[in-house]
Amino acid sequence: MAETFTAAVAEQVGQNLGDALQALTGEHVGWGELMAQLLSQLLISILYLALFVGAYLLLIGAIRLVIGKERAQKPLFSQVRSGARYLAGLGALLAILAQFGASPEFLKAMARAGLMALGFFVAWMIVGRLMKEGVARYGMDPSIRQLVENLLLVLAGTLAVVTVLAQFGFDVLSIIAGLGIVGIAVGFAAQSTLANFIAGITLLIERPFHIGDWVTINGQDGKVIKIALRTTWLRTRDNIFTMIPNDSVASSDIVNYSAEGVTRLNIPVGIAYKESVKAAREVLMPVLLGHPEVLQGAGMEPRVMLTSLGDSSMNLEVKVWITPDNLDVQPRIMADILEQIKEVLDAAGIEIPFPHLQLFIDDAKGLKPILEPLYTKLAAKPAVNK
């Protein structure tokens, strides 16, 4: 019973699929004939694929044997191998499509499109190599190289897509006109993005800072991590990343602490008026000269200078120089020096004053009934002999 039911279902499904194929092709197709044809085409496709893979392996093996093992490790050989692999894949694809009834016109168009795509790839590799040599020769900033590569990649990609589509009968002029209209619409819809893009190009050309510099932008201190086309990335000393739009960066004040190399730190210190500035300087200089991260070259000697006379203190300023690499830990260096300054001043008995308030209540008549008995009591109290 079950076998009869299964056979009936299979017969009905086969009949339905046969009717569907007949409606699509206009001819009656037998299932046995169709399966045999598909199997034979599949076997022939596998043979073609094996043939092209074998030809690729033989070609790469012959090239490696000719140029030697050492040259085969260079990037040029890797690029040649990628090109040969691409050609082998393209040939196998064309042969397999021909087995499944693709028209000669379609195969020719695909072959031309594949070869043109390979040509664009080779041209891009040559341009990239020339750009790399130009960067090494002229010391071009990596950010400008990144900008040029992105622009060329977009232009080359657009041109390659349009050229490939033209091989299949698409109207290139209509495509270009459509891209122009889309570009205008996008320009109106993304004015802020375009403004940031143009500002990013301006920053890369003027170069007020480079990747790795410590800067202050819009009141935000940080190390420049990346200069993108739309934003500038900063990393603070707390390891917090900040993305600032390039339009805002270009229109704000920029302070670059790394542009001139070494940086000077100014640490304020106050001492009492009764103390000697010379004595304080003699106490502080050994701390500065002995600190491992304070520079002591010509023109960068540590100094202790009197800068002003305050309300309750003589204001000194400790001036030291540090290397650009130490800008990452600048707060730690300042805190370390300030702590040592406090210790040596205390050890030398030099007073560090602090603001205080003195209150006079002699003329406060309203407090007389309270303070007068207290004064009388204190005056009548006998002194204690020590």
Give an account of the 3D structure.
The chain has three domains: 24-173, no CATH class; 194-256, SH3 type barrels (Roll); 263-347, Alpha-Beta Plaits, CATH 3.30.70.100. The strands form two sheets. A five-stranded antiparallel β-sheet has the order 4-3-2-1-5. It has a three-stranded antiparallel β-sheet with strand order 6-8-7, covered by helices on one side. It has eleven helices and eight strands. With 386 residues, it is α+β, with helices and mostly antiparallel strands.
Task: Please provide a brief summary of the model.
This protein has 11 helices and 8 strands. With about 375 residues, it is of the alpha+beta class. α2 (about 30-65) packs antiparallel against α3 (about 75-100), α3 (about 75-100) packs antiparallel against α4 and α4 runs antiparallel to α5.
| Major sheet attributes | 5 strands, antiparallel
Note poorly predicted spans. none
Question: CA-to-CA gap between the ends?
Answer: 126 Å
Shape: elongated
How many independent structural domains? 3
Radius of gyration: 41 Å
How helix-rich are the residues, as a percent range? 55-70%
Strand order of the largest sheet: 4-3-2-1-5
Class by SSE composition: alpha+beta
The number of helical segments is 11
Quaternary structure type: single chain
Tally of extended strands?
Answer: 8
Q: pLDDT average, as an integer? A: 78
Order of helices and strands: HHHHHHHEEEEHEEHEEHH
Residue share in β-strands: 5-15%
